[in-house]
Amino acid sequence: MPRLFSTRRLFLAGKNAIYLLILGTIFYTVTLRLPGNLKPEEVVERSGPPPPRIFCIISTYEYRHTQVAIHTHRTWVRHCDHYLFVSDYSDHYLEPAVFMHMNDRWHRMRAYLEYVYKYHFHQGDWFLYCNDDNFVVVDNLRHMLKTYSPNELIYFGCKMRAPNGLVYMLEGSGIVFSGAALKRFALAALTNESICSSEAKGNDFTQELGRCLTNVNVIAGDSRDELQGHRFLPFDADLHLGSTFNQSLEHHKYFLDRSYYPVIDMHLPVSLHLICFHTNYIMTIYNMYYFAYVTRVFGVPRNLNFENERMLLENKTTLID
User: Fold this and answer.
1) Three-state secondary structure of 180-221
2) Could you give the CA distance from residue 116 to residue 97 in angstroms, rounded to a whole number?
3) Of 282, 273, 292, which is closest to residue 73 (Cα–Cα)?
4) Which helix (H) or strand (E) holds 55?
5) pLDDT tens track for 106-145
6) Beta sheet of 126-131, edge-to-edge order
7) What ranges make up the beta strands (E) of 81-151?
8) Is the pTM of this model over 0.70?
9) How far apart are CA 73 and CA 192, in angstroms?
10) In angstroms, rounded to a whole number, what is the distance separating the alpha carbons of residues 7 and 229?
11) CA separation, residue 198 to residues 25, 104, 114, 131, 193 (Å)
12) pLDDT value at position 298?
């Protein structure tokens, strides 16, 4: 009985081998052209404008180098794009710019800002001036400044109004200058005694700063968030989150009498995009740094309901996931 199928002939015969080779080539070519087997093209992400560069200026003193400033240096300062400690004496760890024999706070601030403009202006778009005992969430500051241009003549902080109507920023809550504002201050205000005094001002130095900036058309911006929550706090965070102002205290009364924005029920609403506040006990800065920069809350959606979150804070309730 003849065999109907010859394996030897199929694979070894000359013509059949050629046919098989052609079929295999066609099959391989078609397979490569199938959409599912194509190599994915590299996707080039379209990025927006680069984030604003923050240059941080931290004011300190020799006696505070190891007690306060060193802890600031080890925590939030490293999130600035560039930073500079300014002091009245040198330090091998902080490496500050040293300004000796300046006893008046206004004289020091003038010198600090002029120095930064001359030697570090190219390193930042915005310039944050603060004290060594401030805690700053730099990423929130960067987020706020995305909606502004460093070419605008504007500056931000905890906004105040003097009895004569002068608008200025409260000392100790951090002050942020646009690049254009710092440049205008250094070139137009400091060089004109009639619009920016070089006389000693003591604790009123930020009022004189406000006068100088106003005289050169720099606007005092609104640093509150879309729900009128304050980003630059005048006092320690625990006061704003768990208590109310006490008008019998001199520093509280000063703020209540001069706050640019009304204070309702002796309470200041705090923004969820908080930027800067004072620390009464510097060692708590490590706790705050951990919770602000390190901790990630599992399962929290990106689009938070800000109003509900604020109600929880104001009612002093605890959210348990």
Assistant:
1) HHHHHHHHHHCCCCCCCCCCCCHHHHHHHHHHHHHHCCCEEC
2) 10
3) 282
4) strand 54-59
5) 999 999 999 999 999 999 999 999 999 999 999 999 999 9
6) 97-98, 82-87, 54-59, 126-131, 175-178, 154-156, 219-220
7) 82-87, 97-98, 126-131, 134-136
8) yes
9) 35
10) 84
11) 88, 10, 13, 22, 7
12) 82
Asked whether 207 and 201 are in contact (CB, 8 A), the reply is yes
Nearest to 110 by CA among 19, 51, 192: 192
% of residues, the chain, pLDDT over 70: 78
| The CA-based dihedral angle spanning residues 183, 60, 234, 201, taken in that order and rounded to the nearest 10 degrees | -70
Residue that is written with structure tokens 């506040």 in the block: 277
Convert the pLDDT of each residue in 21-64 to its tens digit.
Answer: 555 555 544 444 444 444 444 444 445 667 899 999 999 999 99
Q: Give the number of other CB atoms < 10 A from CB of residue 94.
A: 21
Structure tokens at 250: 């001199």
Cα 274 to Cα 16, 54, 136, 168, 223, distances in angstroms: 79, 16, 8, 20, 10
Strands 276-278 and 134-136: antiparallel
CB 129 within 8 A of CB 172: no
Q: Across the strands, what pairs with 58?
A: 85, 130
How far apart (Å, rounded) are the C-alpha atoms in residues 5 and 312? 83
Structure tokens at 244: 């109310």
Distance, in Å, from the CA atom of 145 to the CA atom of 125, rounded to the nearest integer, reads 10
Tokens 């099959």 belong to 27
Nearest Cα residue to 50 out of 26, 20, 81: 81
